[in-house]
Amino acid sequence: MAATRFIERLNEQIAYEFAASQQYIANAVHYDAETLPRLASFFYGQAIEERNHAMMMVQYLLDADAKVTIPGIAAPETSFDGVVAPVALALEQERRVSDQIATLVGIAREEGDFQSEQFMQWFLKEQVEEVSSMSALLTVVERSAGNPMTIEDYLVREGIGGGDGDPTAPTVAGGSV
């Protein structure tokens, strides 16, 4: 059985992951309204990924025979100035989630909860990738803010946001629907 303290914090993390998903939908809608379909598509994909992270955590708690709480979340930020602000917000969010994931790993380790620590290892790796890709995107967006079509071209050229998934990823509760 997973450690009680870890279970409590993982339930909190589920809320953070759902909130991240909602924020990415808001980012995508902003870009859709600005007729920037590649940026919109990128963030719609990120929203699904964050939702799936929450559902992976739900599945882990179910598998560990632990109580699952699906918490409410605050409304996302929906008003942005220009093309840079949503990506800057996304990078800030990914850095915050990285800290939260590291804290969860620390709790599992402190509690001697080796299964939970093992479960969280994939999320540590994922967050390195998320921060790196969002940081690179922010650099491109800042550099190309005056010509957003350059950003669209970059996303197409680099194939960003079109991953097939990671076969080592934890199972998503309910499948990856």
Give the overall average pLDDT. Answer: 94
CATH architecture: Up-down Bundle
Summarize the biggest pleated sheet: none
* Assigned CATH superfamily: Ferritin, core subunit, four-helix bundle
CATH topology: Ferritin
What sort of overall outline do the alpha carbons produce when their principal axes are compared? elongated
Low-confidence segments, given as residue ranges, are: none
Order of helices and strands: HHHHH
Task: Using the CA coordinates, give the radius of gyration.
Answer: 17 Å
Q: Give the amount of beta strand, in percent.
A: under 5%
Percentage of residues in helical conformation: over 70%
Span between termini: 28 Å
Q: Specify the number of helices.
A: 5
Number of E strands: 0
CATH class: Mainly Alpha
**Pairing-aware structural class of the strands and helices?**
mainly alpha
What are the salient characteristics of this protein?
177 residues, Ferritin
Structure, explained:
By secondary structure, this protein is mostly helical. The chain has a single domain (4-158), classed as Ferritin (Up-down Bundle). Helices cover 70% and strands 0% of the residues.
List the helices and strands and how they pair.
Layout lengths: L3 H30 L3 H27 L21 H26 L3 H30 L4 H11 L19
Condensed summary:
The chain is mostly helical.
